[in-house]
Every structure is written in C-alpha cells, then in structure tokens.
Specification:
single chain; alpha+beta; Alpha-Beta Plaits; 2 domains; 10-stranded mixed β-sheet; 22% helix
Amino acid sequence: MAVRRFRATLGYRGTRYAGWGVQPHAQTLQGTVEATLSEVVGHPVRVMAAGRTDAGVHAEGQVISFDTTSSVTPHGLHRVLSTRLPEDMWVHSVSEARPDFDARRSAKRRWYRYAVWRHGTPPSAWQGRALVHTDPLDVPAMRTTAKTLLGRQDFASLETSPSSPRSTVRTVFAADWLQISEPLLVFEICADAFLKQMVRAIVGSLLWVGSGHWQTDDFSAGIQAKDRRAMGPNAAALGLTLDHIDY
C-alpha cells in the first residue's frame, strides 16, 4: 500500500510526562502518541515533532508529522485519537500533508509563552500552568530588557547542558511581557528555534530584572558572556507552554 504522510496539531499538559522525546523506563509524550497511533493504524508509527518540549512543559499547538500505509481518513483518525489519547492530551486537527512535509524541519517560527500568577492562588484553570510569584515586579523594566533579545544573536548563555557542539545562534522575532489580567502576566517569545531550556533561562533572568536583582545591562552582559553561569536561574517548567508553530 502507498505511504501517506499526515500532519496533526496536538495540545497537552506535560505535568506527568518526562518530556516529549522517548526515554527508557519513563513515560513520555512521544511514546504515548506513537503507541496510540500504532494501535489505531495497525503498524508501528514514528512521529516527528516541531518542538521537543522538556519535562513538565505544556503545549497548545504542538505539530507532528508521521507516515502510514493505513487507509484511514484524516477525519476518522482525528475522531479515534480523540477517544484514545489520555485526558491530558487532545487533538486540534489532522490532515494529509505533502510527502516532503516535516514538522520540525519545515517549521519557520516557534511561539512559546510563560505564565506568571502574581496575586494569591491561581484558579483551577491555571493550577499547574503558571508560576506563582507574589513579590513585586518592575514590569516596564522587564519589557525593556526583553527587547534586547530581538534579532540574530549567539544565545550560548541560555542553553542548559549542551549535548553537542552545534551552533547556539538563533533569531528572536518577538519577545514581550503581556498583562493579560490584574493577576496574570505572560511572557511571549517567538524564534526560529530554541536551545535546551532557553525560554526558562530567559524568564528566570528577566524575573531577576523585575525584582531589582539585576539591571538591563546585567542581563545584556550575561548574554554576551556566552556562559550559562552568567545568567539567572531557570524558571520552573510548569509555567511554560509551546503555543503554536508557523510554517
């Protein structure tokens, strides 16, 4: 039978998973999706994801691509996946794609957001999805500092535990803090690609600026140092969400 390539957009809560990528002796998002798809189409399936989210990180618009020889329709696959995936995973859309479509390599821009809850206990909708940070924050200073991330730069200072001697140069297209409501503050960032735990390192360092521990110049100097020890701590994974992918 002919091989067909599919594209699907997923959402998930990453709280109980050891990240996207398959790992031995650990429950992962990729492993869960592949096992479910394989059961549905009747043969082993390997998926490619636009972003390999870390342990505890969520997604609203993760995009995957995979091949199948099954005759299942996109609508049928969407319907069946919606009933068989765990409750903390869901399907937004399923479609057939061009044979050369690759969820990771075809992606042009990736959008992440990080949520900070500033007053009291978050409501149930935000439990486990936002960092609770009730200390005062200088949001204008955080916004000003975030703009220094824009453009093409070497972000080696923002990569946690580099695994190979690959390039650490990335292009950031947008970076800003948005006051969604009186208690909810969201950092939004878009780049061509991200280094390991890069967004969490940015947020942790910007919170240092907001708390008065750092000035904008300190943040910029940390970036220029090309040394992870020169930046602030990683913000907790629970506030981070892969929002959507541009193709």
